[in-house]
Specification:
The chain has 5 helices and 4 strands; from the N terminus they run αβααααβββ. It is of the alpha+beta class and about 150 residues long. It has 2 domains: about 30 residues; about 100 residues, Beta-Lactamase (2-Layer Sandwich), CATH 3.30.450. Strands 1-4-3-2 form a 4-stranded antiparallel sheet. A hairpin with a 5-residue loop joins strand 2 and strand 3. The chain is globular. The N and C termini lie far apart (about 75 Å).
């Protein structure tokens, strides 16, 4: 019986090591994407992770933005209208929110973005708890004048 437990424990350790390796590879993949802002929000909408694409597009380093509310990226008019809260509520209710709109960079300039917010409740492929995965990319519109 001792050998069965040892094999069982060994298999569990191998599975845990494999999962950690896959998690690390996934983090490296997301971090290496520079054309898309990909980051995680906690259940309250605060930035929990940040990739290089987000830094390039929005201008904030991870140290400057992690912990801040994602409404930071909305225009003052959209914040006043409650659009950030509506986006999270839609994602939580329907599992996904998708829209194009103006977003703000750290330097105060605005840009058009295609935004997708997916809700993850811990029962999905990624058991991460009640969080949101946010992905956005800049839209270049010829002739667009601010």
């Amino acid at each position: 019986m001792g050998q069965i437990l040892d094999k069982s424990q060994g298999a569990a350790a191998d599975k845990s090591a494999l999962q950690q390796s896959e998690d690390q590879q996934f983090k490296m993949l997301v971090q290496s994407v520079t054309d898309y802002a990909i980051y995680m929000l906690d259940a309250g909408g605060h930035v929990a992770s940040w990739n290089m694409g987000a830094q390039r597009i929005k201008g904030y380093t991870a140290g400057q933005i992690v912990g801040r509310h994602f409404s930071t990226f909305y225009t003052p008019q959209d914040r006043a209208a409650g659009l950030p809260a509506q986006a999270l509520a839609t994602a939580a209710r329907e599992g996904r929110y998708e829209k194009e709109g103006l977003r703000m960079r750290k330097d105060g300039t605005s840009f058009m973005a295609h935004v997708v917010i997916d809700h993850q409740d811990g029962r999905d492929v990624f058991p991460i708890g009640n969080r949101f995965i946010f992905a956005a990319h800049e839209i270049f519109v010829l002739g667009y004048v601010e």
